[in-house]
Amino acid sequence: MEKIPYKIYLNETEMPKAWYNVRADMKKKPAPLIHPGTHQPMTAADLAPVFCEELIAQELDNTTPYIEIPEEIREFYKMYRPSPLVRAYCLEEKLQTPAKIYYKFEGNNTSGSHKLNSSIAQAYYAKKQGLKGVTTVTGAGQWGTALSMACSYFGLDCKVYMVKVSYEQKPFRREVMRTYGASVTPSPSMETEIGRKILAAHPGTTGSLGCAISEAVEVATTNEGYRYVLGSVLNQVLLHQSVIGLEAKAALDKYGVKPDMIIGCAGGGSNLGGLIAPFMGEKLRGEADYRIIAVEPASCPSFTRGKYAYDFCDTGMVCPLAKMYTLGCDFIPAPNHAGGLRYHGMSPVLSELYDGGFMEAVSVPQTKVFEAAEQFARVEGILPAPESAHAIRVAIDEALKCKETGEEKTILFGLTGTGYFDLVAYEQFHNGTMEDYIPTDEDLKASLAKLPPVD
Amino acid sequence: MEKIPYKIYLNETEMPKAWYNVRADMKKKPAPLIHPGTHQPMTAADLAPVFCEELIAQELDNTTPYIEIPEEIREFYKMYRPSPLVRAYCLEEKLQTPAKIYYKFEGNNTSGSHKLNSSIAQAYYAKKQGLKGVTTVTGAGQWGTALSMACSYFGLDCKVYMVKVSYEQKPFRREVMRTYGASVTPSPSMETEIGRKILAAHPGTTGSLGCAISEAVEVATTNEGYRYVLGSVLNQVLLHQSVIGLEAKAALDKYGVKPDMIIGCAGGGSNLGGLIAPFMGEKLRGEADYRIIAVEPASCPSFTRGKYAYDFCDTGMVCPLAKMYTLGCDFIPAPNHAGGLRYHGMSPVLSELYDGGFMEAVSVPQTKVFEAAEQFARVEGILPAPESAHAIRVAIDEALKCKETGEEKTILFGLTGTGYFDLVAYEQFHNGTMEDYIPTDEDLKASLAKLPPVD
Predict the structure, then answer these.
(1) Nearest CA of chain B to the CA of A270: how many Å?
(2) Is residue B325 part of a domain?
(3) How many domains does chain A divide into?
(4) What is the ipTM of this complex?
């Protein structure tokens, strides 16, 4: 048998031509979004003022297993995909583990993460619908960057509302977005009614994601030819991200490799849902079995300490309700450095799969995550994003267990992105000033007590 | 004929097993380094206190065409190489040019540039010689990062002297180096005799590369088991960087493509020398012809406005003299943002080739470079380093000439790295506050007047 190379790249002809919709293979479907006023399932008509038509169809489609990737998107994918599936020989050697470790690396594009896989799809459908532009929110900035790149490619206007504190703390992220022609507005702003209202009530506020969502939705719904788009949680996003798992599986299949476990970090679920999609499909259809592990920060543990219930997707409570593992939409995660994982809820698809026992979840404290990040960077030559390092932490832990037991397990994990914009966090880690923020039971009780009374 | 994919990746088995030493094919060899005191050519014995033995042998070897890449280095190369050779379909489409544009992208590793190709070789030979560690200097930080990564891999101590002003302005670069376990000292420091002397004479100075070199060399020569290493200019560095050109040529050969012109940015010459090596070899042997174009910043135009003469390699005048195109070692380039191109001199190999008429050179102003950078980022999805964007500028200009003439020329250029740490420059560009610094004839006359009296 041919030795497996350090990096497996698919040929262009081997790249996926359709996304895989795991909902089609779920016997128990994820619960529908419901209307915040009527508590009835949201219809396509309800969603039309906010979202693009084709994306609404994908959002509501629980039955079609494969949805063709339009030619234009596949062409764009070729610009930065296939992403490499890397055999972590150097990490294995360093750990002296009999485990075989693979990771799918999504950081080799300027957005620095997997987010581009969905932003390009969303921009494409917006363009196809004849829209002028889209609005969105960004916290850490990866989604905003990815959307800027996609809009630049299709000639769409892109309005990003960036939480004011991030806008000021992360000027570099802002400049990348500007390079791609996006307008980046610190939120709350004087541009919107809700922004002006908030600023009048709380002069000098540094903003929040909830407030930014309210502004972006207002702009999308009050301007002709605009819609609102977002980069995680939604079913459509997980659908687009299935390209990660499909490529990973195709690359492993080429070498006859079957992973024993699949590990990914989980914030809103976009990366994990995409990585595991085709493997989960096999598991749901009873064709194969895999351990599937979601890794979340101990500071924001929606799977491991949250409740499976209907909740608002945003702090501003303007969006539909989703049934998901949640810490309550009032929950304010402590300032850990994995901005992409600081979400109170979780993808409804993953929530249903977790509730159904098809996957596990584990939470890890921030300092342990950065220990793993540094160890990984030193041997694998990639500076991981803090989000991605959550998966690295658990992959290393599992590989060390194999060292104890002597088992030659095959581990696949998702390396979602790079940490070039997270060096303040690395600095804190090096200086020994990084803290682990773990919410108390009382904290969680308080925010969970405010869940809306819906079943 | 098979359609050429967006990205051509060699298989591991197709990766180069030997570096190519272009000096072997040069009829007129580059002039030797000479001793600053005796003005005699530097011997291996002269160089031994400062440099590693095997590297000295490579430095002085003007005759061996191929030098085997040791197995250990080839293994490390597999971690981040082969780098992709990209067909810039999206850029061609945007420019509406009949030209065919290819670029070799070296930015997909944490050092963010091609520098790792040589740092891993230098660290390997230091380790093989039984050294404890190495010292070096860094300005922009790419070389320092690359060396940190290499030293971490081989378990060598790595002491980086970083110009104080950069140390303070670029804390993120410093943190990446610390992630790899390097010690990073702002220069001038109190750790060295020369540092203490400079600080006593100029309290509060923000340092210079010349001063940092003096400190790094002092530490290397006064500590048992240390040597000094550097990332450009030297013959050995160009040798290691030939891996760029060898891979690029192998990838093009696979598809039967022959470039008409090869374009690279030139500061000290490490990237350009590496990229063009095998093509230049064919040209020197009369087997093929290529236009080869060095691109330098208008603010630091050593090829286009300098003199071909012996000069000091460092501002501190502690290093040997090299014959090269130089602006004079006193020349202080204006603060343009391509830190990697702000060097007063040029590789002696490239200088001899330029003097011999085997290549051209052109200089471009900074704002035009950033225009090209932004245009490229928007269609090719990579945020280029300012250094690399010099090559992009000229590649675009040449492609636009083809549009006028209708010629279907094939252009290959080197995309040396990413611009994640250069966003202050992008911000200036977006805000319209970026300036083009072009030295006056008087400026150049003054620094060239101080060339040492050696022929």
Answers:
(1) 21
(2) yes
(3) 2
(4) 0.91
What residues in chain A have per-residue pLDDT under 50?
Answer: none
Clarify whether residues B106 and B119 are in a common domain: no
Q: Is B328 found in the same domain as B275?
A: yes
Give the count of beta carbons closer than 10 Å to the beta carbon of residue B283. 21
Same domain, A277 and A370: yes
> Does residue B2 lie within any of the structural domains?
no
Q: Does A78 touch chain B (CB under 8 A)?
A: yes
Say how many C-beta atoms besides its own lie within 10 A of residue B271's C-beta: 33
Q: Are residues B213 and B98 in the same domain?
A: no
Cβ pair A420:B172 closer than 8 A: yes
Whether A39 and A86 map to the same domain: the answer is no
Which domain range does residue A329 map to? 7-14+78-112+236-448
Question: Is the same domain home to B179 and B262?
Answer: no
The pTM assigned to this predicted structure is 0.94
| Spatial contact of B59 and B382, defined as CB atoms under 8 Å apart | no
Single out the residue in A213, A233, A253 at which a domain terminates.
A233
Both A220 and A295 in one domain: the answer is: no
Question: Alpha-carbon distance B342 to B387, whole Å?
Answer: 10
Could you tell me if B283 and B408 lie in one domain? yes
Give DSSP secondary structure letters for B88-153.
-HHHHHHHT-S-EEEEEE---STT-BTTHHHHHHHHHHHHHTT-SEEEEEESSSHHHHHHHHHHHH
Instruction: Between B68 and B332, name the one with better pLDDT.
Output: B68
How does pLDDT run across B217-241, given as a tens digit for each residue?
Answer: 999 999 999 999 999 999 999 999 9
- A407/B216 Cα distance (integer angstroms): 47
Residues 6+ apart with CB under 8 A from A140: A166, A170, A173, A339, A340, A421
* B21 located within any domain: no
B423, A175: Cβ pair inside 8 Å?
yes
How do residues B15-44 score in pLDDT, each as one tens digit? Answer: 999 999 999 999 999 999 999 889 999 999
- Looking up residue B157, the CATH number of its domain turns out to be 3.40.50.1100
Nearest to B110 by CA among B55, B149, B167, B163: B149
Describe the crossing of helices B270-284 and B348-355 by its angle, rounded to 10 degrees: 40
Residues in Cβ contact with A434 at an 8 Å cutoff, skipping those fewer than 6 apart: A337, A366, A367, A370, A425, A428
Q: Which residues of B touch A113 (CB under 8 A)?
A: none
Please name the residues in contact with B3: beta carbons below 8 A apart, sequence gap of 6 or more.
none
Instruction: Scan residues 420-449 of A and list those with Cβ closer than 8 Å to B.
Output: 420-421, 423, 426-427, 430
Answer whether residue B250 is part of any domain: yes
Q: What are the tens digits of pLDDT across the range A226-238?
A: 999 999 999 999 9
Say whether residue A179 is in contact with chain B using an 8 A CB cutoff: yes
Q: How far is B433 from chain A (nearest CA, A)?
A: 14
Residue where a domain terminates, one of B166, B201, B233:
B233
Q: Supply the pLDDT for residue B59.
A: 97
- Which residue of chain A is at minimal alpha-carbon distance from B422? A172
